[in-house]
């Protein structure tokens, strides 16, 4: 595509926008790969080649405009190579899976190859097999992790051929990356030449790449959905090629066999086929019925073997994300409940709100079909935005699908006078009012439990919090059994914490709980705010405490580095400056600061031998008080030549709960 702009003196210059974007992403992939060469020597070569290609491609595109299409396609291949190698390096730098969904799907494929029905078998071993941290489990409100398969069968069948060939540990990630690349290439071929450079954005944007590498398996249904919505309105056109006509419902059926996200497209597409049939003078129900059959056949072909194998297990697994009481999480409206501590905590309001909004959107789609024919796919993330689980991938991964649907359907000329049926008016009014009412009700009233963090226990030098004390009051008129977790401001819901306190709170009862972290990944950092969340199953609620944080101070030790050895017996100064977490010096006097020293061996920790402020040799936790400039000065003197460097670190003692740990300075003492 040539983008023209005024070059001055009535001359216009063309910019090859496709090559420009493709070349920039080739350079970007080269930059992302730079730095991994010490681990994978070939990476440096590829990085240099991609960066060099991007620069040369830009030069040639401006100099030889006729080469634009070839250069754009080569840029696409270069981006695919960069993406594939980036995924490979990331896998080996961080070998564990970062979601339970990809671990479960791959383990389900493993079980199937062993002749075991994955729907009827616990998948708990997948956590250990694929190194999934407990913070990435999906939890029920009871505090127990989900350990059963919760997706239709194609979610793991697509991994089975690769695993049968002997690829095991990262088979699912390799397949997901391949499907994401394939989707980007498919976009490039299906989009008009003027905008097909958007394929580079889909392949290169970190919000998409992070989902792929992070273990979100949406990449598996992406090519199926792209083909399902491409020219979907031609299904009612008798002149449209038969193969292309039936490709849409078949691809939708396969997409629905991967993940429940695709299920939400089905009612809109069926309604769209109905509207197209009415506008073309055909029976309003025959074509939708044919379309439904076209969707159902591939869906059943994939899933019927497992339905026959154990129908109850398949139904429970496939419907689990829609009907089970999993913990709320996401970037939608529920984020205000979790992180800003608003809302009344009763999750049935958000479930009902999402359902009402979805019905309202269907009514709007049918009533104002000509206006929403191109953009209806946005109805799906907008409906999920209001629910209790509005994960980021639910909100963004359908955007490439929106683009394909919007540019491939036929334009409808809006009627000058469009009479809206009275029933549609009533329906839109009723569900608009119901949605607004439920939304308001979800923010009226207090949360079921009032929580107040009363104290924390830190781990010292590790800089983590391993215990939290919380005071809880039950405002409900019924007994509740709370389950607790501790949330920090990273946005990741961690493991449920072990609690010491009454298992059941009677109405209006107050109690104190001591929460203990079950593992290291669940421990929040002392530098982050934290809040306590309490979940109950009957009723399904969430209650959150106000943010709790330690004083926002850090210490900076200077000199930051000793690049030459220091002679023993010669005193020198180490200065500790109080600073805010944003690095601003704090002029606070009278603040106690401690300085510690230690030596680290290959497999042991040893006491150092320096004196600090005239203390005994090797003394630890020597305290000094800050002056008016917020500085604490320590006089250090080496006493012996040690075989190991001495490491110094400062902190703020805070009555036995230290925080504000400084940088570490190492010193080699010599005679």
UniProtKB/TrEMBL annotation:
Q: Does the keyword Transmembrane apply?
A: yes
Q: What is this protein called?
A: Uncharacterized protein
Top-level taxonomic group: Bacteria
Q: Which UniProt keywords apply?
A: Membrane, Transmembrane, Transmembrane helix
- Ranges that cross the membrane: 12-31, 43-64, 71-88, 108-127, 139-159, 171-191, 198-230, 250-271, 291-309, 315-338, 350-371, 391-413, 425-444
The record lists the organism as Sulfoacidibacillus ferrooxidans
